[in-house]
Amino acid sequence: MCKIFIVDDDIFFGEMLKYHLQLNPDYEVLLFNNAKDCLSNLYLNPDIICIDFGLPDIQGDELFIQIKNIYPDLPIIVISGQENIEVAINFLKLGAKDYIVKNDHTKELLWNSIMRLKENISLKQEVEDLKDELEKKYTFEKTIIGQSHPIKSIFSKINKALTSNINVSITGETGTGKEVVAKAIHYNSSRKNKPFIAVNMAAIPKELVESEFFGHEKGAFTGATERASGKFEQANGGTIFLDEIAELDLNIQSKLLRALQEREITRVGGKQKIELNVRIITATHKNLAQEVKKGNFREDLYYRIIGLPIELPPLRERDQDVLILAKHFIDLFAKENKSKPLSLSSDARKKLLDYHFPGNVRELKSVVDLACVMCDHHEITAEDINFYNLEKDTESFLNEQKTLKQYTTDIILHFLKKNNNDVIKTAKLLDIGKSTIYNLINNLEIENN
């Protein structure tokens, strides 16, 4: 929506301009009959102001200067009954975007002038947004939020990764920010002006991986109606991020190894060799060394991609970073939704610090976004914070400090409730004797209601 101010003491003429401009549903037009009302409403942040030269309270050029003193970059169009060339030149020298004489063609001239200005405003905003995005990418200490010792250790390793083109392997639980780290490395490296291509191994059917990686020629297989470049070719000169690398099929692993060793690829169905100059960053939530021992991952490929290993800490090991990240996500939510700024109450902070966050940073963001929506006042309370407890998932369950006997009791109780307290069915499901359950009930360790 483009907000336009019209300042004109001729009520009929001003209403005519307002009506004409509001034929465009993207325009919000506010009409003022004097300069004082215009100045007192500048807090509404207009995108464009159209001022009449002859106003009853303040002369047009004086109003122009007062607006420019407050908002130097605000576009102003001057509409005047005077055809005085010197007056027009003076306004243009002061920075007016256009000078339009009042006549039968005024509304069409104003429409065209605003259209041009709106295009320039949109282009300028796109440039500013791009600059902001690039600045975010180039300053990894602003995109990877935290001050804990574990996260400072990550900063140190990222800095080491920037001194060379060594491959990087990132490990960590789901939701810890592996792709964020990969982008931080790329956009702070000498390859930052070249492509960053992310590929999620788990999302590609194994029969299509080779074509996704290396591309294909027209007619290489059914459905290949034209030549297509692969992810490696698209990333040439830059970085390719292979997420969930442990999910890669063994057959494709051998082809990937060959491509990395020979530093060249061939499209599926083709013969032309394409030289590779690409940095490899991989990520997985699995232990790749263990996958090698199990025979699920090639040992030679493991040593080829391991490079500089970076292990991301889970959020529960990052101390006060939880609150720093929460504040960051609250501010981000307010900015993206143009809503009121919020703070965290002491009970909300304690609730966040006491939770183990099995979903890590990704889960925290979801929790904070929901809390911002639920909050009715200026402060988020503990009642606004709701965790996505997936019926005591395995990871959170094992994080609790209990004895084996207590864990056993909890498991039996869970399945008893699930089976409507049917002891025989529960015993069969857990492959334990009925007497084990009855003994627990008799010892009052389980209440069989």
From TrEMBL:
The organism's place on the tree of life at top rank: Bacteria
Residue intervals of the Response regulatory domain: 3-117
Residue ranges of domain Sigma-54 factor interaction in the record: 144-373
Modified residues (4-aspartylphosphate): D52
CDD domains from the UniProt entry: AAA, REC
PROSITE patterns linked to this entry: RESPONSE_REGULATORY, SIGMA54_INTERACT_2, SIGMA54_INTERACT_4
SUPFAM superfamilies xrefs: CheY-like, Homeodomain-like, P-loop containing nucleoside triphosphate hydrolases
InterPro entries noted in UniProt: AAA+_ATPase, AAA_lid_NorR, CheY-like_superfamily, Homeodomain-like_sf, P-loop_NTPase, Sig_transdc_resp-reg_receiver, Sigma_54_int, Sigma_54_int_dom_ATP-bd_2
Protein name as catalogued: Sigma-54-dependent Fis family transcriptional regulator
